[in-house]
Amino acid sequence: MRRVSLALLLPGLLLAGAAAAHGVAEDDKLFIEGSAGAQLIPFLYLGAKHMVTGYDHLLFLFGVIFFLYRIRDVGLYVTLFAIGHSSTLLYGVLSGTHVNPYIVDAIIGLSVVYKALDNLGAFKTVFGVQPDNRAAVFIFGLFHGFGLATKLQDFSLGSDGLVPNMLAFNVGVEIGQLLALTGILIAMGFWRRTSAFGRQAFAANVVLMSAGFLLTGYQLAGFYLND
Question: What region, left, alpha or beta, does residue 121 occupy, with left being phi > 0 and alpha being psi -120 to 50 degrees?
């Protein structure tokens, strides 16, 4: 029963928001475009809201911490992801560097696929090589940050207060990541203590991989249809 529930949960997260990966709600969009000067608290809130509702980020983090049992290891990988995510988010918006949003979001989908395959031991089994997961998490973090930057670049962001607002937004993203990660870790803690975890781990990562392919395919279809 739990296996079925998990199999339905992950695709459900995707289908619930598949129309706009990294999307920003209409009310939030209006606020962002209409804000003038430093608005630290609202942008802090918007950043946290984005991360908590960002299913692609959550799927990737779920895969990253799936087999991490020590808080020190969790902290290391999440910090690497946060550094990568924060760097490209700030750089993309403040420098005006534009990348194709469909391609970036497709790569983000592949980051989910990568972590699921790694959890399944596919790289070592098939290729006889184990990738450096620390480097992979950091590099994929760079793409996750660019994913949000591409959406913020669609808005008319005023130069007045732009830097402090983006810094506040970024801090909010990291706060949201911490809140989401706490919930995931608590749920994982209960699940790992059940006798079924060992049997269900394989199926869970197959579902995770399928969700990543679904994300990637959706974005590639958007790229070709809107080219």
Answer: left
The CB-based long-range contact list for 59-62 (8 Å cut-off, 24+ gap) reads 59/10, 59/13, 59/112, 59/208, 59/211, 59/212, 59/215, 60/108, 60/111, 60/112, 60/115, 60/140, 60/144, 61/177, 61/180, 61/181, 61/184, 62/184, 62/208
Domain count, the chain: 1
What was the pLDDT predicted at 220? 94
Please tell me the predicted confidence (pLDDT) of residue 29: 62
The domain in which residue 90 lies consists of 26-225
Q: Is 2 inside a domain boundary? A: no
Q: Does residue 19 lie in a domain region?
A: no
Q: Is residue 14 part of a domain?
A: no
pTM (global) more than 0.90: no
Is residue 12 one of the residues assigned to a domain?
A: no
Name the stretches of the chain with pLDDT < 50: 1-22
